[in-house]
Amino acid sequence: MVLGPAPDPARGAMTYVSCMGAETRPRLLYEVSKAVLAVNRQLTVHEVLQVIVENATSLLNARYGAIGVPDDEGGFAEFVVSGISDKQWQAIGPLPRQHGMLAAMLADERPQRLADVRQDPRFGWWPKAHPVLVDFLGVPIRDDDEVLGIIYLANKRDGDGFTEDDEELLTLFAAHAAIALTNARLYERERELTVVRERTRLARELHDAVAQKLFGIRLGLRTSSSLVPREPDRALAELERVQSQVAEALAELRAVIVELRPAQLADDGLLESLRKHVTVLDRVYAPHVVFDPGEYCTCGLSPAREIAVFRIVQEALHNALRHADAGEVRVRVSRRGHRLRLAVTDDGRGFEPGVSRGLGLASMRERADAVDAELTVDSAPGSGTRVVLEVPCDG
């Protein structure tokens, strides 16, 4: 049975909730709210898909659930399941193609609710290891006219099949899931752009610092070789200068490698990741680099905020160590009320914030704005630089 156009989510929710008893309505609203919040806490697209299908399956008391994200080549870019073990999923085989009811829901984007999917004329076939599905409910996840994915549920546990109320509830949930999935896509795209920007910056650093030093080393060696027969003392002095340039080039390469190493934020946490990063920088660079946890107290940050904080501090350290000609650079972490405060201070030559360009300040401000943090830069020629970041705690 193919039903008509999808109901309005808000109207469907009111209809469904109003049909419930006084004791059932609060529980239902709580379950929907919990499911939606669980989805919105995720960041990556895969995590969002997994939580959507698990919460949809639980919300409607289904035995099996799946969510498919179509690609442009007749298949699915991702297909996430619930109720099937890893061993069974491996036995089923590769991701499904767009056939049977999977294709039908892409061609006709209305919800599909069937008493027995096997009796529908559009039903195709299953792989040998596939579980037997009977009652079926499918609802698209839409962003305006774009179908982001489709939620498939099967085999309601109470044995009575899916109802019209179930369809309305899943449609409501899918509308909220669409927002979370769109946000996750935007987050991943922003992360990809950040990676590209980081690679571009590091490529520029390699060219400006290391490549130029290597070119100078090559010229120095040529000069030395030409001086050896006539002026051996000058040749020796030139070789010593080349040796110094080689050491500087090696230090630059080590610094770039340090910046390429990903921070293990998920495993170590922000504080320990910063401590390890500062320790490595202190070994690589001539200035003394100090990590000062100060009066640090636990301040829960979301993964997005932890990444932003780490990258901003990393950029501030990069600027101080490469451009400030400092003797000491200090990173201090503290907490002020419901905000985490990080300060990167150096005793270098300073600069004029309103005039200076090319120190990554724009990128740092963009990262801070993206996580509702406040970034201030205090510097003046001859007076060092102080970069302060304050970010709201999430817990």
Q: What labels describe this entry?
A:
19% strand; elongated; 51% helix; disordered N terminus; alpha+beta; five-stranded mixed sheet; Heat Shock Protein 90; five-stranded antiparallel sheet
Written description of the protein model:
The protein is α+β, with helices and mostly antiparallel strands. The protein folds into 2 domains: 9-187, Beta-Lactamase; 267-395, 2-Layer Sandwich (Heat Shock Protein 90), CATH 3.30.565. The chain has 10 helices and 10 strands. It has a 5-stranded antiparallel beta sheet, with helices on both faces. It has a 5-stranded mixed beta sheet with strand order 6-7-8-10-9, covered by helices on one side. A hairpin with a 5-residue loop joins strand 1 (62-70) and strand 2 (76-82).
List the helices and strands and how they pair.
Layout: H1 9-18, H2 24-40, H3 45-59, E1 62-70, E2 76-82, H4 86-92, H5 100-107, E3 112-114, E4 136-143, E5 146-156, H6 164-227, H7 232-260, H8 265-284, E6 288-292, H9 303-323, E7 328-336, E8 339-346, H10 361-370, E9 374-379, E10 385-392
Question: Nutshell version of this structure?
Answer:
The protein is α+β, with helices and mostly antiparallel strands and 395 residues long. The protein has 2 domains: 9-187, 2-Layer Sandwich (Beta-Lactamase), CATH 3.30.450.40; 267-395, 2-Layer Sandwich (Heat Shock Protein 90), CATH 3.30.565.10.
